[in-house]
Amino acid sequence: MHPSNALSDGELVILSATLNIKAARAAERNGWTGAYEVQLLAEKVGIWSQAEAERTAVRLTPRPDRFPLESFLELHDVATLTVLVSGKAEADVLQALTEAGIVRRPNIVRARFDDEAAIIAALRQAAAEGAHGLALARGGGAGLELIADSPRVVAALTALGLPFYSAQGHGDDVFLVDKYADEAFATPSVLGLAVARAETKVAGRRRERGELADLRRRTANLQAELERTKASEHDAAERVSRLEAHRAKRVHADRQGVTLSWRTALAAIGALALAFALTWILA
To answer: Are 63 and 78 in contact (CB under 8 A)?
Structure first.
């Protein structure tokens, strides 16, 4: 620490500092018991006040329920996912999507990852424009922690009430935004690949559901046709039954008529015979 920024015993201060940790050579240990040298390069930038710290503190609410990216894309179109990207991250995400043959893309927006306020404003604008989900994607390099470790950025994301995803730096980097994200990815390229894989799976399931729905419609149509056929068969059977009954009545009537005709003829013959006999007797 520079002598002009010397600290007084018991003084509470705010430091802007860099912590360096490196392996110490044996000749430099000078009595150090460990194998590493820890160096804090700091500059006093203010006096710490508990009241001021409590006033400006950002309180983050735990997020017990997370919404994985694949689940998000199952419910929402990929275009409703807005991804704020740095220049390198944009190229990495697009390359992963292109190589996977994904035509439909997330809404990719170039953002300033060197400006906390600008990122927060971009997130709020994306939500206001109808985004259903958000993502932050930035390649590695200096200054990652400005956004990725910002409690204000995380608070802004959680306050929007939307699922959000993180892809910061390199594979070994873990930041505050990763811990609060619904799902965190090692790099922007991995995020792009995850979108591609999820879209492929979701598209397959949607296609299967469509085929199943079509099969159900066809089955319902065949069932309805079968019911109509059964109804037609029933109507035909009733008509046949009525015709049979009518024919039976006609046959019975015809038989009755024939019987009556024979009886009439016999009676007439008998009458003629009687008349003839009487005539013969009287003659």
So the answer is: no
The CATH superfamily of 69-205 is Dehydroquinase, class II (3.40.50.9100)
How far apart, in whole angstroms, are the C-alpha atoms of residue 89 and residue 95? 10
The pair phi, psi for residue 143, each rounded to 5°, is 85, 5
- Identify the residue whose tokens are 């439909």: 104
Q: Are 79 and 130 in contact (CB under 8 A)?
A: no
Whose structure tokens read 């296609």? Answer: 207
Contact 70, 201 (CB under 8 A): yes
User: E strand or H helix at 15, and its extent?
Assistant: strand 13-23
- Tell me the H-state helices in 57-187: 69-75, 87-99, 116-128, 144-148, 151-160, 176-180
Please state, in angstroms and rounded to a whole number, the distance separating the CA atoms of residues 165 and 175: 12
Q: What are the extents of the domains in the chain? A: 3-56, 69-205
40-64 tens-digit pLDDT: 777 776 777 666 555 556 778 788 8
Computed over its alpha carbons, how large is the radius of gyration of the chain? 47
Q: What are phi and psi of 115, to 5 degrees?
A: -140, 105
- Please tell me the predicted confidence (pLDDT) of residue 219: 81
Dist. CA 102–CA 197, nearest whole Å? 9
Closest CA relative to residue 82, chosen from 41, 49, 51, 124: 124
Which has the higher per-residue pLDDT, 27 or 101? 101
Distance of CA 139 to the CA centre of its chain: 27
Edge to edge, the sheet with strand 164-168 lists: 107-110, 81-85, 133-138, 164-168, 183-185
Q: Which of 183, 165, 181, 153 is nearest to 81 (CA)?
A: 165
Residues 6+ apart with CB under 8 A from 31: none
CB atoms within 10 A of CB 83: 26
